[in-house]
Amino acid sequence: MEVLIDCYFDRLFEGMERSSLASRHRRRQLVKFFSDVINSCAEAEELDKADVCERIVRAALRYHTISMAENGLVCMLGKFHNVLYVAAKLCYDWKLENNALVAKILDDMFYCEKTFERIFVGAIFGTRVTHFLTGWKSDFDDRDDNIKALIYFLDHAADARLEFFCQSISSQRRFIDVPMESYGQVLPLRVAVQHGAPDILLVMLRYGASTAMDDIPPEPLEILLARLDEFEEASQCPAALLLCLRILLRTVPVVELKVPEHLVEGCGSPKVLVYEQYPNLELWDVIPAERSGRKPAELKHLSRCRIRQCLYDNYALPHGIRHLPIPTRLQDYVDLLED
Predict the structure, then answer these.
(1) Strands, DSSP E only, in 195-337?
(2) 91-112 pLDDT tens trace
(3) pTM, rounded to two decimals
(4) What is the DSSP string of 69-116?
């Protein structure tokens, strides 16, 4: 059956124009076509639908690999590359559990693009805004569907312990922390903070997104504090930004702000506490005294930070939390679902 699928795949793509899969509509048509093939083959030959889907996804990966091999290991983009997004949509739609296969799709995407922004932008902005920002329309139905798809790929990336070498910053990064090229090489977490989207911010943090790995200052927390400090009183602060701050504060023992390099010598320290830089935010009770540095952080919170770091080191966020021998309420606390 694999041979038949491969041959059919080659014939189908041979008649397509190079730009044929640039349109979301055309990619969706192809996904629907393959879904119909999956249903038909499964019923006719009494096969498992997931097995048929896996064979089609492998054929898509084979097509991409061969097209690169024939071009000196350089991706020709167009339909030769966008077939990966057809494969990714099939994996998500049919909820394939083959971790090695999904990891291969992510590896191939990164090899050609050096970013995963096409997976992230729909979850952060929704399906319409992304087209105006990058010219790419997400393959998933709406923002909620994009978030579910992102979680699907986050799970597989964690299970496969994937890391990617980002040449622009000369370091290894996990899937959640690969910079977004079209957005100035900043991390997805920073884009979510700037957009003021607490729901996707919580998802990213639960999966271990870094709050301090962005090589382009200021850090996401500093951006948020600066925006809130622009208002004259607490009642004017947007609820979404305040919720973003609450969620971010669950991940840090104490808020420390970096001092610009040219001012370090005069300050005597590379960092200052938040109440020194933004006294109004403390007066408004926007930042608890335990996070601002006025009071020591609670042992419970420090324990949460340490446990999460251990789980992160073992690629066990967030699902490993549910295996901890602690009450469910404490599991929710460690999982950032409660203050």
Answers:
(1) 256-258, 271-273
(2) 999 999 999 999 999 999 999 9
(3) 0.92
(4) HTTTT----THHHHHHHHHHHHHHHTT---HHHHHHHHHHHHHHHS--
